[in-house]
Amino acid sequence: MKIFEIGNGEHAGAEALSVSQFLATWPACDFLLLDASCVTFQELSALTERLRSRMIGFVSADREKRAQLLRFGHFDFSEIWTLPNLVDELTYMTQDLAQTQGFSMAPDEGAVIPDNFSGNIERLGRYELRVSGNFKTPEVVVAFKRLHQNWGKPIFVVPFRRFYNAPGKHHLTFDYTVLSGDLRVTYEIFTYDRQGNLLKTDRFEQREGTFEAFEAAEFRGRILLHGRGSVRLGKVWTYKDKHGLGWYQLGDARHETADGEFVHSLYIPGKRPEKLIVGFSGNLSELPHYERQTMATYGFPVLLFCDLRARGGAFHVGNATYEAEISRQIDAHLTENGLKRSDLILIGWSMGSFPAVYYGLKMQAGHVLAAKPLLHLGRVTSNTTVMYRAEPSMIAARAQLTGRVDLADEAALDAKILSALTEAKSGGKLDATHFYSFHMSADELDKCVPFFAALPHHAITEALGFHADKIGEMGQWINQVLDELSEKSAEML
After folding, report:
1. CATH number where 216 lies
2. 478 and 387, same domain (yes or no)
3. pLDDT tens digits, one per residue of 6-37
4. Using an 8 Å Cβ cutoff, are 217 and 191 in contact?
5. Which of 60, 61, 86, 340 is the 20 to 30 Å CA partner of 201?
């Protein structure tokens, strides 16, 4: 990761430059540290007008300079400027592709249900449990261990692997919902040294908390229930602490719906408020570099959504409340930039292609880019033996969408995109949207060329290979379409 610093050059690992040198040479840069007291307002304005992404961490800015920096979404680093390892922290926060890690409640994910547990347990897919009972004293329902017996065979598991790989402060989100009664849920994490000595015990009785992990330590945990009723136990999410600069990426947003679901998004203000690019993450539970930075290079404002509700995501759709929150955020940023829905460019690949097409139909977006599209949710989430044998994310997505894993739901899930298409046709609004699609000739998950070929305005590109092939070509295709739309937008001004 390349980090430059304009100022006093006090951070190890960052290359020091003056603002004039930076503007003259314009070096490739992942992040820029800026002591705003060392530049004039005119120099700062030239800098922010050139940069087309959120990549400046600043300190010592007066009111006028601060307003200019915040206008384009850059970050006030006053609280963390003196961190001795600031460059390392930035590298982790901006480049680690596994920003979050969920711990499963299932035995095959390193969690063991005690033999003497007195309550009732129902598994929801692979990653959630529904538990009920009357627990007069705190009772362990799930214990996380590093080594356990699974189906009579010794299996080595690392249920708290995030802590092993990234010592330091972590933010935790405990995904549980009390369904009835007065049940109280307690999470405990035990830290041991390598000799097996207990170093500390952390207890959490709220949905959120923080945890300090040490190097050369072992971690175990358990979940306890106390009281009468029923509860849905989901994952335990861990996030490397962002020092107040965001949950998932620097400067991101996290909105909770009325139903207790979370919508994570990242917004990058643009210099050209002519279009709004909206991107949806695929089956990665993260925002890849090209989505965070490359899309921003066109100068349009960019809004990116990341789905953390299930292992790998759940296609960015759900009940009416969840989908309304997605639409609300899109409309809010359109209004902020003085734009209409016809100015929308929605982009997604693989799992992210479905929401791009779905919300494109619902909102009459101007342009939709769908790469390696997956549109038949029932068919795709049933097809778990082809590509995702070792990572059953499709099962987790199906459980999130329907509350169970049952083939009886396949037709209804497949009909979701067709319903959106029918609604757009009946309203006479389908002609407002231009669709661009990139397909793999031997895609084993879904074949959607006929869907796009039947649309009034479409451009179809096909490449040889299976679903996971030609990632580079897919990225080039996205950039090529964006180049064309950017040029057309400039010509219309």
Report:
1. 2.60.120
2. yes
3. 998 889 999 999 999 998 988 888 889 999 99
4. yes
5. 86
